[in-house]
Amino acid sequence: DQTQLYDLSTGESVGSMTHTATVNDLSLSGDASQLAAARADGQVEIWDLATSQIVAILDTGPAGASFARWSPAEDRIVVITPASEIQFWDPSSARRLWTVDAPTNQSGQVIRPFGLLFGSDGQRLVVDTGVQDPQLRVFDTTDGSLLYAPTERASFGFPVADPFWLNEDKMIVGVPARGGIQSFDLTTGEVGDTQIVNRKRSS
């Protein structure tokens, strides 16, 4: 596989990177100086965009790397494997910090993560399982611990999607099955009532 870089102001190619295996996902660091390429053979390449050279390789395992995401502070890369394992990495040392088992639903079945969303300070990570599961899981990126997990008291009751941070303690999520949104408070685990979003046709 090959990744082509373009100057958005001119539309012209400014460089390219050649990979020795299929690339499943690309993630740009916040300062746009580095690019993480998650490969199907389990390696995540860290490229320096100024030199178009690989500066580090994260070996996530032979199963492959489905996708990777930089934290806002650029001091963490989170990788999801095809087995839905969640790995936390230090990109500067290419060292795996923590590994979190794949999320499961209430029946014990493995749920494939749909997306990742960091808090603004990078210390909290939401694992979104999309419409497969009516829950969200929130992790502390400083030690890999689980801050929030589904409980009977704090269950959305319906599959949720598209989480959005209001602040470091509260979130809004979409509830497609009910055509609305719900809030939840991370500090108390309380889930708010569904607010129906009315859609008006434009004339």
| Terminal CA distance | 47 Å
C-alpha-based Rg, rounded: 19 Å
Taken as a percent bin, the fraction of beta residues is: 35-45%
What is the global morphology?
globular
Q: Roughly how much helix do the residues carry, as a percent range?
A: under 10%
Number of helices: 0
Give me the secondary-structure category: mainly beta
The chain-level mean pLDDT equals 80
Order of helices and strands: EEEEEEEEEEEEEEEEEE
Low-pLDDT parts are 151-155
Q: What spatial order of strands do you see in the largest sheet?
A: 3-4-5-6
Number of strands: 18
Largest sheet: 4 strands, antiparallel
Descriptive key words:
18 strands; 203 residues; mainly beta; 4-stranded antiparallel beta sheet
Question: Could you walk me through the main structural features you see in this protein, from its secondary elements to its overall organization?
Answer:
The structure is a single chain. The chain is mostly beta strands. It has no helices and 18 strands. Mean pLDDT is 80; it is low at 151-155.
